[in-house]
Amino acid sequence: AGENFEQTPLRRTFKSKVLARYPENVEWNPFDQDAVGMLCMPKGLAFKTQADFREPQFHSFIITREDGSRTFGFSLTFFEEVTSKQICSAMQTLYHMHNAEYDILHTPPTNDKDSCSSTGDCNGTSVSKLQRFNSYDISRDTLYVSKCICLITPMSFMKACKKVLEQLHQAVTSPQPPPQSYIYNILYEVPLPPAGRSLKFSGVYGPIICQRPSTSELPLFDFPVKEVFELLGVENVVQLFTCALLEFQILLYSQ
Predict the structure, then answer these.
(1) What are the start-end ranges of the E strands in 154-241?
(2) Might you report a single GO cellular component term (predicted)?
């Protein structure tokens, strides 16, 4: 995905694609495959081994269209084992190429035999580099690849969507998945709660509640405000709030 090739293959990012979507067409929400793929996996497809951190990660995003309409996306990214021998072999080949290239670029040319004896072994540097960067061995390591499940909704029910995705992930990774179609249920049988009302429905493994504010209340904001203070700090939050009240232009920059 346009990353620096000096990175080891397990540290590179690869281009992701949408494997499936349901339903195929929604009248009020035309599907933009490139936008959804980029927003679900902003850093691209990633590979890891059993030695890496692989806990599921949740994030949200907003798609704003030309007419100002918005749809809200909620994504759960997790890692599953690569069962394709072809992909595992390709990763091993990438590592061999990377190690060979690194060795050529970083080994200084020398014809001095004394310098070899002073370091102990002419090939010692080369071998150590290979050991350092050869962190994937097809015969020893288990390869994992990132995958994402996503809900796109007309309103920002963050907590409810997070629970739905976590329970769906638990179901698809379970040795005995439940027989019911919970995806069909959430799309067609769970109604949007009326303004000022709460809705409780059955998830895969437990009840899920979403609440919609009335017209006389503040707009729906289902995100924990605590996280803003944890990420920015109290002083920066106060400064941002002051700038908003004074109608200053605010630019948020993030990786």
Answers:
(1) 198-202, 207-211
(2) cytosol
> 225-232 and 234-245 helices cross at what angle (nearest 10)?
110
- Is position 91 within any domain? no
Half-sphere exposure of 100 (CA within 13 A, CB side): 6
Please report whether residue 61 resides in a domain: yes
Measured from the Cβ of residue 171, the count of other Cβ atoms closer than 10 Å reads: 17
The tally of domains found in the chain comes to: 1
**Model pTM score:** 0.76
In a domain, 127, yes or no: no
Let me know if residue 26 belongs to a domain: yes
The band of 121, judged by pLDDT with boundaries at 50, 70 and 90, is very low
- The band of 55, judged by pLDDT with boundaries at 50, 70 and 90, is very high
Q: Which range of residues forms the domain containing residue 34?
A: 9-85+139-246
